[in-house]
Amino acid sequence: MYIYLFETLLYLSFAFTGGFILLLFVPEGSKPQMKIPFDLFQYGLLAIPVFSFMSILRTSFILRAFAENMPYYELLLIVLKDYKFGNAWIWMLIGGAAMYAIAQLFRPKIHRFKWLLAGIWCLTVLAHGWASHPAGFSSLGFVYQSVHVAAVSLWLGVLILVAWFTSGSLNWKPFVRWYTPMAVSSMLLIVFAGFAMMYILVDGYFRSWGINYGEALLLKHLVFLPLLLLAFMNGFLTKISKQGKDERKLIRWLRIETVIALAILAITAYMGMQEPPHEGEFEDPVPSGLFTLLHGDVSLLNMRWHWNLPSVVLILVGGAALSMLFSSYKRNKHSHFSLLAALAVICLFLGLLLAVH
């Protein structure tokens, strides 16, 4: 359970530090007036190697069961030396420590070192991608994972900083003038890299819904729908509505957007700890607890569409809730929007799982 939390915090650390570094390149007049504690940025830099080290510890404890007489530090060294993600962690440690040292030594003149920080941060993301699931199956998987993490981090990092650390004027028009194209480009990269990794990892998208990894992937895609709608409304509808003129209300919507995005990060962290259904690994699948609860004892996961009344009703309710999000946004109903988004995701998720068997 704790490993999922640490993985989520790792992605959040990438986002926070990436967003902070990106904002160093933006002129003061083109971004909101923010008070971001510099110490928090430094903690984020240190958090990258710290939280990523939890996977090293987890693997070492697993190996302990097969080598009870071997000292723990030797097992730890084996993981760091012989395992791909152990090698990657060493580079992440070097990158995180280097960025922290730069931030600590040149704090008053940090803008002068923005290119160096950006370069080291990108190398740290590449190290993380090198040790990922997709990289283990394909050399292109390394590229897709790195692009995916970088795009999410830059888009979400800026969003988090603006939503939670704005203390003065939002400077909305000059801000969205550059942030909207950047966010759209990031979304396109996220979708492209995400589907590319799914093609590498998942042999049969629908068939994977019977196991933990596939269900998490489906849930992630469904949570992405209200996030995409809210991002569109915050980025484009505010230009033609009163929402863009009321900065306090707009910040609340931006915060809701960050909460939904954090839910996706948590799901992604969970997926990273599950075995993807690829090739031989999917020949003898084990149904998940949720799938067994919905369909009873199932020995084979030869998925086919089997439409039934409960699944159709749930999907229709989910679709209706999704369509009502625009109305909630226009009426500035934050709680209604959140409840409808949750209802839409849950109903669509359960409806689709009930529709396959």
Automatic annotation (TrEMBL):
Residue intervals passing through the bilayer: 6-26, 46-67, 87-106, 113-131, 143-166, 178-202, 222-241, 253-273, 305-325, 337-356
- UniProt keyword annotation of Ribonucleoprotein present: no
Keyword set, alphabetical order: Cell membrane, Membrane, Transmembrane, Transmembrane helix
Q: Which GO terms describe its biological process?
A: copper ion transport
Domain Copper resistance protein D per the UniProt entry, residue ranges: 175-270
Q: Which InterPro entries does the entry link to?
A: CopC/D (IPR032694), Cu-R_CopD_dom (IPR008457)
Bilayer topology: Multi-pass membrane protein
A GO cellular-component term linked to this record: plasma membrane
What is the name attached to this protein's record?
Answer: Copper resistance protein D domain-containing protein
